[in-house]
Design a protein that fits this description.
The complex is a heterodimer. Chain A is α+β, with helices and mostly antiparallel strands. Chain A has 19 helices and 15 strands. The chains are: A alpha+beta, B mainly alpha. At the A-B interface, β8, α8, α9, α11 and α18 of A face α5 and α7 of B.
Chain lengths: 551, 291
């Protein structure tokens, strides 16, 4: 990390009203008064060209009598995070909105609005995560609200809006093409999609509240792994890293290598699953079946290394629970050879099918400028020309010891997103060979695991779908605040742009091209309270104002 | 002419077997697909099992549908009648029966389109509009090719290059008519959740699905008949060979479909139009050149 650069940034931040500045690992923590927040954010997002990672509210009244809002930005070029904290009084929790400067902040502001009762001035507010008839004044993430409170059940149906001359095609919440419940309302003229309404968050699990109330630090590893069925290990790793960073726990190198190995196995498994699903959505079931056949050795490899085909359960704060011996290494390398050979043949065949090429090229385009404004992550970003990968930019676990390429394509279409994932499978195999070759001897878990209170940390991991963010404020025996931002949460808002103008037939593959994981995204419930359409305008010059509204 | 014992015995058996064959061939197709997919696949009689199960369900008409039962029954009866008529025409070597069967086939196609039209489901409506787009090109090509063969040959079938090209048009259009990938746009599960079939269940779905399989078989009989008419054959041998050749075509199409992806409503019709126009142009040129 460049200390001169950090000093320069700190000087500029101070000049714009930042105070209480501290640097911990790769993160600069600053505080700022509400009235100076917007100018600071404008500097960080526009002049420093930082990506917006997420924001999260926190009820700090038991600690200092205030509510707090944390905005997390990422300077990937310099391997830095910048966390901007703003306070509001307990009887009037108002914060200025930044959504006109950072359109990507829309959802997380409304999440804080619903779950903590924060009011954001200068924007239209709406219910995002709670049902329309949720009791007023009941904010689940406030500390006085118990985790097991249950408001009286009620039904809250929603009328599909009926525009006069545009047909609305509902997709979901239950649909043969969907593997999780989500709802898209596509407005079509002929067979062309002209507008999209999205409502997700159909499955409430209260993960953050559970983690902050009734679970211990080590128990949360297993809860975090269940945020998602496909990319669970990356969540538990991200959580572990956040706590380890906050508590300054030195994780043994061997454990870091094991984590990285399992992360890459998970990535290969996820990408193969996705390629199969994409082939199925394009009518090429042969590709689907063969991709999942090739995926099977990866599942067997995961079972060999961790004891489970999925949901591995080997992460602990301070290290891992399972080791990899020499016989496992040898078998793992054999499996990797098989997967590489077979997937190469399959990928070449898949990309030679004329219907596949025609359906994927120049469909579902996400321009680079819009991708940047929305701070999309992962393959979606890399397919739109944004060269971002947390493994390279903010190396974690054992990634600093390996060489790999980050595939980037400029077209921004569905084909580009497929090609990024195909290339990443081969890169993951390359990484795995290096990790297995270099894995050092030693313990697999730290001896001293002491977690002091009131420490903060941001952890990032590169999930198959993109960057995961876990933000932790430590408490006694469990986190005081645990904020999770999954990559699909960042990518889903981009669908409105990607779906605009596509043929109806290409809508499912376009939706699937972001590899949406609604389990990760739907940590909380969302139901719209009316059927009014909103338009999200994004094609504005950088730094100019716009009037973004939600989907 | 007094029919012989063989005529009395073989022909009804062949016709009865043809009615039983389409779902059996569908079962074989599923097995072929499974082999290509590297799986085991369902048993060959699975399609019959599925149909029988559907027939055993309670009858539930789609909401707001008009005369749906009448239309589906008409569709079924007309299809089976056409199949029997066609096979009989092949047996008698009667061009009139063959032409009447092709005309009836066009009516079957119209009924095929009408049935989802009377349900009030947007997915069915979109599937239907896609099917119409493809049929407009495909069925016209089918009729044109068939008519040109009759016109050029005057019912006396002899091999020539233009004859071959026109039979190729019929083979392609029979593939497209069968609703296999890449032309299964009407059902497209990812966006239409079964499309034209979405409102059907139980016996309605069973009858509709069975009749679609009969139609799939019927559409292969035309090119099979035209190929085998080049050879002098006894009537019942001709019928048996037409059925066998149609089965071979079915299995050939079954092998092609899993190797392709699904097309799109703006791509498929224009691709077909270009292909058919080129083939007809070639056929005409060959005819003019006396080839």
């Amino acid at each position: 990390m460049n200390n001169d650069y950090i000093e320069k940034v700190i000087t500029e931040l101070k000049a714009r009203g930042a105070s209480d500045i501290s640097v911990s690992h790769d993160t600069i923590f600053v505080s700022v008064e509400s009235d100076k927040l917007r100018s600071l954010v404008e500097y960080i997002h526009n002049e420093l060209d930082c990506y917006f990672r997420t924001c999260g509210g926190c009820d700090e009244r038991p600690i200092n009598g205030f509510f707090a809002l944390y905005h997390i930005f990422g300077d990937d070029k310099h391997g830095l995070n910048i966390v901007v904290k703003t306070y509001a009084s307990s009887d009037d929790p108002k914060f200025p909105t930044i959504v006109d400067i950072v359109p990507a902040a829309d959802w997380c502001e409304m999440e804080a609005h619903d779950l903590l009762g924060f009011e954001f001035t200068g924007r239209r507010q709406y219910r995002l995560v709670l049902p329309p008839n949720w009791p007023k004044g009941l904010y689940p993430l406030r500390k006085e609200v118990p985790y097991n409170i249950r408001p009286k059940p009620s039904t809250s149906g929603e009328q599909i809006s009926k525009p006069t001359n545009i047909a609305a095609i509902p997709i979901g919440p239950y649909h043969p093409a969907l593997h999780e419940p989500e709802y898209f309302e596509l407005y079509i003229e002929g067979e062309k999609v002209v507008d999209v309404k999205y409502r997700g968050f159909h499955v409430h699990r209260g993960i953050e509240k559970l983690g902050e109330t009734r679970m211990t630090y080590q128990q949360i590893n297993f809860l975090a792994e269940r945020i998602c069925g496909i990319c669970g290990f990356v969540h538990s790793t991200c959580y572990c890293q956040a706590v380890e960073k906050a508590a300054r726990i030195d994780v043994p190198e061997r454990a870091l290598f094991i984590r990285s190995i399992v992360l890459e196995v998970e990535r290969i498994h996820s990408h193969l699953l996705w390629v199969g699903v994409a082939a199925h959505l394009l009518g090429y079931d042969t590709g689907f079946m063969h991709t999942w056949r090739i995926r099977e050795p990866v599942m067997v490899l995961a079972e060999l290394l961790t004891g489970s085909r999925k949901t591995y359960g080997i992460n602990l704060i301070g290290g891992v629970r399972r080791d990899i011996d020499e016989s496992k290494k040898k078998k793992a390398l054999e499996f990797l050879d098989i997967v590489e050979r077979e997937f190469k043949t399959l990928a070449d065949t898949l990309l030679s099918i004329p219907q596949i090429k025609k359906r994927l090229k120049e469909t579902g385009i996400l321009p680079k400028e819009d991708a940047r404004k929305l701070s999309v992550v992962g393959p979606v970003a890399r397919a739109s020309g944004l060269d971002r990968d947390v493994r390279r930019d903010l190396p974690y676990a054992a990634y600093k010891y390996v060489d790999f390429n980050v595939p980037v394509y400029d077209e921004g279409d569905n084909m580009a997103r497929l090609l990024v994932r195909v290339d990443e499978v081969f890169e993951s195999i390359k990484i795995l060979r290096q990790l297995l070759d270099q894995i050092p001897k030693g313990p697999i878990i730290a001896e001293d695991i002491t977690i002091p209170e009131e420490r903060m940390a941001v952890s990032l991991t590169e999930a198959p779908r993109g960057e995961n963010v876990h933000f932790v404020i430590t408490g006694r025996g469990k986190p005081y605040r645990w904020k999770v931002r999954a990559p699909s949460y960042q990518n889903i808002p981009a669908l409105k742009i990607m779906l605009n103008g596509v043929q109806l037939a290409d809508a499912p593959i376009t939706i699937a091209s972001i590899d949406p994981c609604f389990s990760c995204t739907d940590r909380i419930l969302v139901i719209r309270d009316n059927g009014e359409k909103y338009w999200l305008k994004l094609t504005h010059p950088r730094g100019g104002s716009s009037c973004p509204r939600s989907l | 002419m007094i029919p012989s014992i063989i005529d009395i015995a073989v022909v009804p058996v062949v016709i009865a077997a043809s009615i039983f064959l389409p779902p059996l061939l569908d079962g074989v197709e599923r097995k072929i697909k499974a082999i290509i997919h590297s799986r085991i696949g369902p048993p060959i009689l699975q399609t019959w099992y599925d149909l029988l199960k559907l027939f055993g369900k309670s009858i539930l008409a789609p909401r707001n549908s008009l005369h749906i039962m009448t239309l589906i029954l008409m569709y079924a009866v007309l299809s089976i009648t056409t199949l029997i008529l066609f096979l009989y025409g092949i047996y008698c070597n009667s061009l009139h029966y063959v032409i009447a069967s092709v005309a009836l086939f066009m009516m079957i196609q119209a009924l095929y389109l009408t049935i989802p039209f009377v349900t009030s489901n947007p997915f069915a409506a979109i599937g239907l509009s896609r099917e119409i787009m493809i049929m407009l090109i495909n069925e016209i090509a089918f009729i044109t090719a068939f008519s040109l063969i009759l016109y050029f040959t005057r019912g006396i079938y002899t091999w020539s290059f233009y004859y071959t090209v026109l039979v190729i048009v019929l083979l392609i259009s029979s593939y497209v008519s069968s609703g296999r990938i890449p032309f299964d746009l009407a059902e497209a599960e990812p966006e239409l959740a079964s499309g034209i079939l979405i409102e059907f269940s139980g016996p309605f779905l069973g009858i509709y699905h069975y009749t679609s399989l009969v139609k799939r078989f019927l559409v292969k009989i035309v090119p099979s008949y035209l190929v085998l008419s080049l050879f002098p054959l006894d009537p019942y041998i001709r019928v048996v060979l037409v059925i066998m050749f149609s089965c071979i075509l079915w299995l050939l199409y079954a092998t092609i479909a899993p190797l392709l992806g699904r097309s799109r409503v703006d791509i498929a019709p224009s691709s077909l139009l270009k292909l058919y126009t080129s083939l007809f142009a070639v056929a005409l040129i060959l005819f003019i050149l006396g080839l």
